[in-house]
Amino acid sequence: MNDQPVSRQTFDEVMVPVFSPAPFVPDRGEGSRLWDTAGREYIDFAGGIAVTALGHANPALLRVLHEQGGKLWHIGNGYTNEPVLRLAQQLAALTFADRAFFANSGAEANEAALKLARRVAFDRHGAHKDEIISFTQSFHGRTFFTVSVGGQPKYSEGFGPRPAGIVHLPYNDIEAAKRAIGSRTCAVIVEPVQGEGGVIPADPAFLSVLREACDAHGALLIFDEVQTGVGRTGHFYAYEDTGVTPDILTTAKALGNGFPIGAMLTTDAIAAHFTLGVHGTTYGGNPLGAAIAGKVVELVSDPALLAGVRARGEAIRAKLAHLNERFDALAEVRGKGLLIGAQLNARYAGRAKDFLSAAAHRGVMMLIAGPDVLRFAPSLIIPETDLNEGFARLERAFEDVCGSR
């Protein structure tokens, strides 16, 4: 065993520098609280970027981890396994979908969805129908295909020629969507709430227009629910609250509560175009991840838990309103359920990281969504005591940045 001491500095010495992590190193967590290697406590309002929906070291998930871990971890895609079959049944019962393809991340789920959409168009219409429409400031993953489809060019620049046939439109712009979606379009991919792009909910009328245009032109509508799915918005999947049903849905993040798993969900007719050997994965749908995800789905789909998400979301909005009455730092609070973005006003434009750092100093782990938005994505079952304590600490962080008022 390697017992050589490590610290935050070790990251700078041995890790590829694509991240810039916080100056402390989290060591253990329980529920919505974490402790770093120095023993300092934090309230977790970040949820591992909307991942630990049931908190850290959740007892029910730990029992599944230990039970399945003692039976079978991995078997390879030449075989199936009971946990993944049960998980597929659960997701089909809860959604519009008939079929599931399991992967290891949201990026892989989106990669599968985009490949499937192009294969469907190729089979049904021919090679000319290959256009994928996405939206500015969207985020769909870090594979080269998904980062090219995402609407943030900074992530795809410097890697050579990008895949062709990708068009980016303004989000929530109905007229632009009507003009752009046409005979060449094979798919439209959209987040019901843009997460990385600033926590911006889609206008239901906008989503309806996307559905109508896709139907009119033989294109598929893909909902990227990697961040919004599995209870985050107060519905098991966010599409349920929009009046629009997609053809393909992608999900990950909270699905495994931190164990890597993602899924692409679709209908029988569309899934039939992914024939034997057309797509694949080594680790996707492994029995250990599937068993954990199955328990997550069972717990999060409880209507009482989902009602609690909506109630906690309203509580956070009220607490942010109280902070803003004192500090006048926020221009807008938006989002759904427990995916909330607080837009800084002009006085604090570009300073989201200052608030993030101050919060960490005061014992709160948070997220940002760009330079101007504070993002909240805590556990869906965060206790009221932790919520109250977290905001008491956050108020002191606001004092640090804004001064006492």
Task: Explain what you see.
The chain is 38% helix and 18% strand. The protein is an alpha/beta fold and 405 residues long. The chain folds into 2 domains: 8-58 and 303-402, Aspartate Aminotransferase, domain 1, CATH 3.90.1150; 72-300, Type I PLP-dependent aspartate aminotransferase-like (Major domain) (Aspartate Aminotransferase, domain 2, 3-Layer(aba) Sandwich). Helix 4 packs parallel to helix 10, helix 11 packs parallel to helix 13 and helix 12 (352-361) packs across helix 13 (384-402). The longest helix has 25 residues, at 303-327.
Predict the CATH topology of the largest domain: Aspartate Aminotransferase, domain 2
Strand percentage lies at 15-25%
Which CATH first-tier class of the largest domain would you pick? Alpha Beta
Strand numbers in spatial order across the main sheet: 4-12-11-10-7-5-6
Enzyme class: transferase
Cofactor: pyridoxal 5'-phosphate
Main location: cytoplasm
Organism: Paraburkholderia acidisoli
